[in-house]
TrEMBL record:
<dbReference type="InterPro" id="IPR015908">
    <property type="entry name" value="Allantoicase_dom"/>
</dbReference>
<dbReference type="Pfam" id="PF03561">
    <property type="entry name" value="Allantoicase"/>
</dbReference>
<dbReference type="InterPro" id="IPR008979">
    <property type="entry name" value="Galactose-bd-like_sf"/>
</dbReference>
<keyword id="KW-0659">Purine metabolism</keyword>
<feature type="domain" description="Allantoicase">
    <location>
        <begin position="186"/>
        <end position="314"/>
    </location>
</feature>
<protein>
    <recommendedName>
        <fullName>Probable allantoicase</fullName>
        <ecNumber>3.5.3.4</ecNumber>
    </recommendedName>
</protein>
<comment type="pathway">
    <text>Nitrogen metabolism; (S)-allantoin degradation; (S)-ureidoglycolate from allantoate (aminidohydrolase route): step 1/1.</text>
</comment>
<dbReference type="InterPro" id="IPR005164">
    <property type="entry name" value="Allantoicase"/>
</dbReference>
<feature type="domain" description="Allantoicase">
    <location>
        <begin position="17"/>
        <end position="166"/>
    </location>
</feature>
<comment type="similarity">
    <text>Belongs to the allantoicase family.</text>
</comment>
<keyword id="KW-0378">Hydrolase</keyword>
<dbReference type="GO" id="GO:0004037">
    <property type="term" value="F:allantoicase activity"/>
</dbReference>
Length: 328
């Protein structure tokens, strides 16, 4: 898997609204485990009513022709760039080959609709190893809403990750205020000075932070300077309200923060250096009407931010560009 694809968000993440819709078989272990956000765990010689307990999806031993499959709804539809099929702890019962199909079914399709959808292969039948993170590149510019993981012929998979670029439906944006920094709206974290304790993308995930680990947190800085987080906005737009949330960060919140914006090569301040409080959602009304394409969050000197929200409006050109990508 190339490094660029690996850095893209997991479109199937449960935190984004992903779900395992159906599987043709889950005799030994439940399909829902496929998109769990936690590291895979295993304890040998732990047996339940279905046999050895696995943190993953496992089908029966197939005695007839065909293969097993599971359908996953992407939490955020988009362009798929890479797929990881993790067979951690499946050693004598992993699928020797896998393939991945994808379809576009907007709205709220029922399972019957998905079974009749126009499925296209994004990962052709390929070898897979046991107890291994199997990674596959995808070269397809199509926007998809669902994927189907196929096991040839059967076996167990611990986790499925679908990395790609979000492409939301612009019909929901139509001249409405929205969070221009939300991953679900197409924003992306493009860089961070430090990501010691957590993935910086956590700062732009949906929902309220669940714990201290749910957000972006740096190591303790022992040198002069400060830490920063770069976000490419969902599109060129004007930011009017900024929310900097330090919920759950009681002894490791930044002392201060500021926001700088970029519009192409032009940079300008959005929020001057401002004191922050621990375990507190902060809301700032921003002056000015200059559009931006990216924002840098500066924290002084270090610490954590649970959520960054930048509410505003897309420019008419940015909205038209999103509509073009949606129709592609």
């Amino acid at each position: 898997m190339n490094g660029t694809a690996w850095s893209l968000p997991d479109l199937a993440a449960r935190a984004l609204g992903g779900a395992v819709i159906a599987a043709n078989d889950e005799s030994f272990a439940e399909k829902e485990h496929l998109i769990r956000p936690y590291p895979v765990v295993h304890s040998a010689h732990t047996f339940g009513a279905k046999g050895q307990v696995y943190d993953g999806w496992e089908t029966r031993r197939r005695r007839d022709e065909g293969h097993d499959w599971a359908i996953v709804r992407l939490g955020v539809p988009g362009v798929i760039r890479a797929v990881a099929v993790d067979t951690a702890y499946f050693t004598g019962n992993y699928p020797p080959r896998i393939s991945v199909d994808a379809c576009r079914a907007d709205g709220h399709p029922a399972l019957a609709d998905l079974l009749e959808a126009d499925w296209r292969t994004v990962v052709p039948v390929a070898d897979a190893k046991g107890d291994h993170r199997n990674e596959y590149d995808v070269d397809d510019p199509t926007r998809y809403t669902h994927v189907r993981l196929n096991l040839h012929p059967d076996g167990g998979v611990a986790r499925l990750r679908v990395h790609g670029t979000p492409v939301p439906d612009p019909a929901g944006f139509a001249d409405l205020p929205l969070d221009l920094a939300a991953l679900a709206n197409g924003a992306t974290v493009t860089g961070a000075s430090n990501a010691f304790y957590s993935n910086p993308a956590g700062a732009i995930m949906p929902g309220l932070p669940a714990s201290q680990a749910d957000g972006w947190e740096t190591a303790r800085r022992r040198t002069p300077g400060h830490e920063w987080l770069d976000v490419r906005l969902a599109g060129r737009g004007t930011v009017r309200i900024a929310e900097l949330d330090t919920t759950h960060l009681k002894h490791n919140a930044p002392g201060w923060a500021s926001l700088d914006a970029a519009d192409g090569d032009d940079t300008f301040p959005l929020l001057e250096r401002t004191a922050l409080q621990p375990d507190t959602p902060h809301r700032f009304l921003l002056a000015g009407d200059r559009p931006a394409t990216a924002v840098r969050l500066n924290i002084f000197p270090d610490g954590g931010i649970a959520r960054l929200r930048l509410y505003g409006r897309l420019t008419p050109d940015a909205l038209r560009d999103l509509e073009t990508r949606f129709r592609a």
